[in-house]
Specification:
This protein has 107 residues and is α+β, with helices and mostly antiparallel strands. Helix content is 28%, strand content 23%. The protein is built from 1 helix and 5 strands; from the N terminus they run βββββα. It has a 5-stranded antiparallel β-sheet. A hairpin with a 5-residue loop joins β2 and β3. The longest helix has 30 residues.
C-alpha cells in the first residue's frame, strides 16, 4: 500500500527545535498539519519524515522534513501509513547494507 497524500496529522511533540529554524517555522503541539510528502531522512539514520504544506523548511538544510514521530496520524490513515513506513524501513535497511558492503570492500 502507498501513502495517499495529502493527509492530516496532529503534532504531539514540538520539543528539540534546531536552533537554525525560527519558531515561526516550527511545529506546535496540538496543531494540525497537512502532510504533502513522506520520505526517509538518510542524514537522520533513515527515520521517516513528513514535509508539511503549512511549514516550508527547505531553506534550513539539512532540516528538510519533520520526524514522523512528532505527529499523531488519524486512524483512517494509519493502516496505509504503517505499510508505507514498513516499506521505507526495508528500503533503508537495504541501503545501509549496500553502503556497509561498499565501505567494507575498501573503496
Amino acid at each position: 500500500m502507498e501513502v495517499k497524500v495529502p493527509f492530516e496529522v496532529t503534532c504531539i511533540d514540538d520539543s528539540n527545535k534546531p536552533n537554525d529554524i525560527p519558531a515561526s517555522r516550527w511545529v506546535k503541539k496540538g496543531e494540525k498539519y497537512t502532510v504533502i510528502k513522506v520520505a526517509k531522512m538518510l542524514i537522520q539514520g533513515g527515520l521517516v519524515g513528513f514535509k508539511l504544506e503549512e511549514l516550508n523548511i527547505d531553506e534550513f538544510f539539512p532540516y528538510q522534513f519533520f520526524a514522523a514521530s512528532r505527529f499523531a496520524i488519524p486512524l483512517n490513515h494509519a493502516w496505509d501509513i504503517e505499510a508505507q513506513l514498513e516499506k521505507l524501513l526495508e528500503e533503508a535497511k537495504h541501503e545501509v547494507s549496500e553502503l556497509n558492503e561498499y565501505y567494507n570492500e575498501g573503496y
